[in-house]
Amino acid sequence: VDLPLLKRMKEGGCWQIAFGLESGSQKILDEMKKGTTVEGNRIAVEWAHKAGINVRGFFMFGMPSETKETIKETIKFALSVPVDVASFYAITMYPGNELYEQIKAEGKLLHEDYSQYNPIMDKDKQVFAYVPPALTAQDLKNAVSTAYKLFYFRPAYIIKQLFKMSSLEDVKRNIRGVRAVLAIS
Fold it and tell me: 84 partner at 20 to 30 Å CA-CA among 54, 142, 153, 176?
């Protein structure tokens, strides 16, 4: 995307855009074959905000070369860009996906019951299809939980949300959001 396109989208009625930002680590983006850069993703988010479009950002943890350090890079990146709503997940792979086929061929696929993958709102039942060699399943759970807490419980974010609320439904939605974040913590 570029700024002129985003401005045209806004004029056409676009009020929100979702970006699969995935990671704040260039190493991880390259491994994913995203064809993007951390800096390019930052610029896209900033342009969307400049155009007046709300931004949802999706981030994931758990690529084969993921480490605690790359997780920290991703969380730091998520906190540094003007994303209005962020979602954090442990990676989920499905048959036909290149990474799935690679992990399965290496004998490292842990579960094939896709209905159990990453049920984000029930951390006790959370299972993973794959856990990178440098991490544990608990590390992945902690990464998701920490990212949500750090993103949504920032004083500046909370104040911004309070000023955005204009109805009882906004208040209820924010209360549900706080409960959801606490449930995965």
Answer: 142
Tell me the per-residue pLDDT of 11-24, one tens digit each, with 9 for 90 and over: 999 999 999 999 99
Cβ atoms of 126 and 118 within 8 Å: the answer is yes
Residue 119 has pLDDT above 60, yes or no: no
How far is the CA of 39 from the CAs of 24, 44, 120, 125, 182, in angstroms?
9, 9, 28, 36, 31
Q: How far apart are CA 127 and CA 139, in angstroms?
A: 12
Q: If DSSP codes are grouped into helix, strand and coil, which group holds residue 126?
A: coil
149 backbone φψ class: left, alpha, beta (φ>0; ψ -120 to 50): alpha
Q: Report how far residue 166's alpha carbon sits from residue 81's, in angstroms, rounded to the nearest whole number.
A: 25
pTM for the full model?
A: 0.89
Pair type for strands 85-90 and 16-22: unpaired
Q: What is the pLDDT of residues 11-64, one digit of tens each?
A: 999 999 999 999 999 999 999 999 999 999 999 999 999 999 999 999 999 999
Measured in degrees and rounded to the nearest 5, phi and psi for residue 29 equal -60, -40
Using CA atoms, how far apart are residues 54 and 45, in angstroms rounded to an integer? 9
